[in-house]
Amino acid sequence: MAMTQLQEMGRRAKEASRSLGAMSSQRKNEALGAIAARLEAEAESILEANRLDMEAAKLAGMSPSLQDRLLLTEERIYAIARSVREVARFPDPVGKVLSGGVNPNGMRVRKVSVPLGVVGMIFEARPNVTVDSAVLCLKSSNACILRGGKEAIRTATRLEEVMRSALEQAGVPADCIQLVKDISRNSAAEMMRLNQYLDVLIPRGGAGLIRSVVENATVPVIETGTGNCHVYVDASADLEMACRIVDNAKTSRPSVCNAIENVLIHRDVAEMFLPMMKKALDQHQVQLRGCPETVRILGDCVIPASPEDYDTEFLDYILAVKIVGSAKEAIEHINLHGTGHSECIVTRDYENSQRFVSEVDAAAVYVNASTRFTDGGEFGLGAEIGISTQKLHARGPMGVEELTSYKYIVEGDGQIR
Amino acid sequence: MAMTQLQEMGRRAKEASRSLGAMSSQRKNEALGAIAARLEAEAESILEANRLDMEAAKLAGMSPSLQDRLLLTEERIYAIARSVREVARFPDPVGKVLSGGVNPNGMRVRKVSVPLGVVGMIFEARPNVTVDSAVLCLKSSNACILRGGKEAIRTATRLEEVMRSALEQAGVPADCIQLVKDISRNSAAEMMRLNQYLDVLIPRGGAGLIRSVVENATVPVIETGTGNCHVYVDASADLEMACRIVDNAKTSRPSVCNAIENVLIHRDVAEMFLPMMKKALDQHQVQLRGCPETVRILGDCVIPASPEDYDTEFLDYILAVKIVGSAKEAIEHINLHGTGHSECIVTRDYENSQRFVSEVDAAAVYVNASTRFTDGGEFGLGAEIGISTQKLHARGPMGVEELTSYKYIVEGDGQIR
To answer: What pLDDT sits at residue A22?
Structure first.
């Protein structure tokens, strides 16, 4: 039976991943350096490809904020190249002895970190994700198969060519980095079931994409990035601080997953807090969608919230507001409606703070700090390939360590059991 | 919409898991002690339930080796109770600070181990798995929903009753341990898609069960226990040692996943090794299925191997044999046909040993020792809930540590980004 194009890519990726597993840190870092240098040297041809994508996007009526995500500039390309050089400076996550010892029968057992093998990524239109994913995989000795959005296909194709030629120049198999050119539903569906070649599949994008991958994939998946995040303002909160945190978590960058979509307010402070919060958010024209009590307090400027609003990741200047009677009720609301990403309590009450961090089921729980800190860089992982919202394998920001597995190596002299 | 029975079990498990998350180690260990004591005190009623299962199994014509897996005796119950007390003595895997520090902005960030939440197990007819799974979950603060095989349903139901009454006696919610009584295909299919309540699903059993779960589950799965394992006898091998290792790995317990199903032999030593190996395996009437060269050397006593034989987990006194031309060819064969469980090279050649452990893609790779050592006890994890053959989350034997995730706890005093 003839192989499909994707199976053939998988076969080549698997083969390339074998040579990566045994590759020295130095060789990998030289390849990363070559990628950075080539990106800079080829900036003009990359920008030319990006211009074609941008023209098509404008013709297709893409929204300005999405256009901004698609756009590359010379400055952005240089920033990408800098981040590639930063990844090269990370310690090598592969080949570390995680534990080990000598068994009573004399066998030497050690647990050693190894690459996952071949990583599949399905993502949307941001060109930098193409490079970020490829270099984090390379650093962790994984081959990767990347499938981006069709809006960025010309840019991504050019970035792939540039990276592959850099790999060849550094003596690393070019098939360590492969881009899927056939951006059809079929190619996504086939990737989700490419168990023979893919060791893991990481979807990065909107809730619809993530759901579709979780529903349909037989390849092991790491869910990332859906963030229906909350700030809970406790009865004992420093209301000035709560205001600063809500404002920062909502408006500093509304389109990212660690931005909040909801604020829960204890009834005892709602009358005082709501006008303060509204005043701060009005500076960014944030639309409020509130429960009946919120509407009663703030009046007509608040849109009555529908039940769906509490389950929606707006990624926009919109905030759902709900008044609750206790920290317990806030925790229950969060565990029911949250996506397990980042959750915050603002409080001066010790017991409530401890209860919140213990009972809220999320990758990152905050006391008196903005949810916007959930980020690989902020948590000391260097760059990140995504933020996991599941509990298996990795939770929260995933860096190069999270792209590894381990194996047990047992050396004996004839031991039997 | 009315909840199904399984949804209702899921809801109760989720609720019980919340109280487990904050439970002290001492309380959990007391509950484990109560379970052990109850199992011993109720031995007679458990044996009575088991007798009914055994009678039905005999009537249904179950094979003697499967009957032996289903059978409980007083001695076996006492052994199970002892292993429960052993689990109680393990260190608590939950609440450990895995890393942490103070960020430049003064926020205190720590990464703390937490339970997975609710663990679903789908397994077959071994009654001890019911208890092992439940107590390992309890130790790691996870609630569990167990679905065993219908052949053991009376035994499993009685074991569940005994364990739940012990939990109640110790002041722990009984719903931490729940058994699915409806052993239909429907209940298995529903469990595989119970994402709202199950945090992970662990299938334990034959290749067919595992495949079905991987194909159909939307809940994150940890694949376990399919072991198509190999011993490769290198040209430089100590042939006496190779003989001992092959014999032990095949015949000491053929029905388990770390037993070998294949032996690969370097051509240079095949003429000398095959008769030695046959003589040892003849003592256990092991059937050999060989490649044409093997048949030529050993003659008619060898059945010609079909291509499927190299992909079959016999779990029986059957061994597939193949002669290869190099360590490289052996490694390629193993990476193509193995299931990523346990693989062994017998060699005196340093370079081949290093190449084998580096290039063979499996949970455990052995030099000069039997694959039968792949086991939670042998690797120092205490008891095990299964042996993972995937690379995400956990690989190889999984103990209580592997039943945990982690969360980031961030404490600040108003930091914004």
So the answer is: 83
* Residues B242, B144 within the same domain: no
Is residue B179 located within the same domain as residue B304?
A: no
Closest of B60, B78, B76, B79 to residue B68, by C-alpha: B76
The domain that contains B331 carries what CATH number?
A: 3.40.309.10
Q: Which residues contact A282 (CB under 8 A, 6 or more apart)?
A: none
Binding-face residues of A in 126-165 toward B, CB within 8 A: none
Whether the CB-CB separation of B156 and B124 falls below 8 Å is answered with no
Tokens of B112: 């703390």
Whether residue A109 lies within 8 A of chain B, CB to CB, comes out as: yes
Do A219 and A250 belong to one domain? no
Does B246 share its domain with B318?
yes
Tell me, yes or no, whether A349 and A406 share the same domain: no
DSSP 3-state of A131: helix
Number of domains within chain A = 2
Q: Which residues form the domain of A147? A: 5-223+398-411
Tell me whether residue A417 is in a domain.
Answer: no
* Residue-wise pLDDT tens digits, B26-41: 999 999 999 999 999 9
> Could you tell me if A380 lies within 8 Å of chain B, comparing CB atoms?
yes
Q: Do A218 and B220 touch (CB under 8 A)?
A: no
Q: Provide the shortest C-alpha distance from residue B120 to chain A (in Å).
A: 13
Q: What is the ipTM of this complex?
A: 0.93
pLDDT in tens, A217-237: 999 899 887 899 999 999 999
CATH of residue A101: 3.40.605.10
Residue range B148-173, pLDDT digits in tens: 999 999 999 999 999 999 999 999 99
Side-chain-facing half-sphere of B223: CA atoms under 13 Å: 27
Confidence of residue B11 (pLDDT cuts 50, 70, 90): very high
